[in-house]
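Here is an idea for our session: we take a single protein and study its fold together. Which protein we use is up to you, so please pick one and set it down. Once you have written the record down, we can walk along the chain together:
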Amino acid sequence: MNAPLSSFENHLPRRVITGRGASESLVELCRANGWRQVFLVSDAGVAGAGLLRKVSLPLLDAHLLAETFAEVPPEPPIDVVDTMAERIKASGADVVIALGGGSVMDAAKVAALCARHGKTAREFLGIRKAGARGLPTVLIPTTAGTGSEATFVAILTDTATGNKVGVVDPCILADIAIVDPALTDGLPAHVTAAAGMDALVHAVEAFIAKNATPIARGLALEAARHIGRSLEVVCREPQNTAARDGMAIGSHLAGMAFANASCCAVHALALPLGGRFHIPHGVITGCFAGEMMRHNAPVCEADFAEFSAALGWGALSPDAFADRLDAIADNIGLRIALKKAIVPAEVIPAMAADAVANRRLMDPNPREVSVADAARIYQTVLAIPA
């Protein structure tokens, strides 16, 4: 007999458009929604790849482009978001379009909020501080990993402390998310690998989170089906468009999944390490996933079997599931990338304490993580003697 249905909420983008070439419809979308002045947000990498020009020229020709801001750095600092918000207000823009990876989309989500409400980004840090939506946003990912176009989470860097901080509020969900896999075709191999593994971690953490809704768990399993047959293929065969397409939709589904459940302890451990040592986020989450799943194994045996089956790996035991995650991190080059970072042993206690203090991510984890547990996992994965 089924258990009684518990109460839950789900929050999703207002509209999602998918498909190769979907990003070419921006002029028509703006006109259909009555938007007359676009503030376009991106970064140097996207501009260098030619994608920014591809998107901006039709807007310019249609007299819809108010300003382009292509200066979002990785792990965007709070003050950059404030600068962007001021420029949005000065431009008179009535919609913010973000073209890029997670950093670009996260910065744009918060800047649109700041521009509408006349506040600084710092005033929105935390959970549900907005009160109302910001300027309309159209979010277009150029990587397949963060899922930021599907979430109401934005991660920024507090340069005063070196810590990563979050704005978590349904008011920053996209008005329109456009998932165009063609925009990922030219991604460098290391970006494809790190972003793709991060999407896999999003899906598994959303599936096992204590607060996962039935819809979130279903989205996580469907994400797994796409990612499982695509991630290692696209890392071996960068020109494989079917694998690119699979990762694009898998990443988006994983983003919707964790937005309606949560990320868990892997991400809690990633934030202090990434904030201090500027290691790509997907490198960290990909390398730490196996060891954290070993920690979670005593309470996740059935979930790991179901999730690994969805990935196409068969119903694995917890140990075999964790081993497979480690093997993928090795095979696609994440472990080599992590080894390039020099992390001194003396920072481990402070990072462990910071990770465990992040209750937004630790509380949903299916098994309690102590400071001693976190320190041990850092030492194990980073190969630092205890």
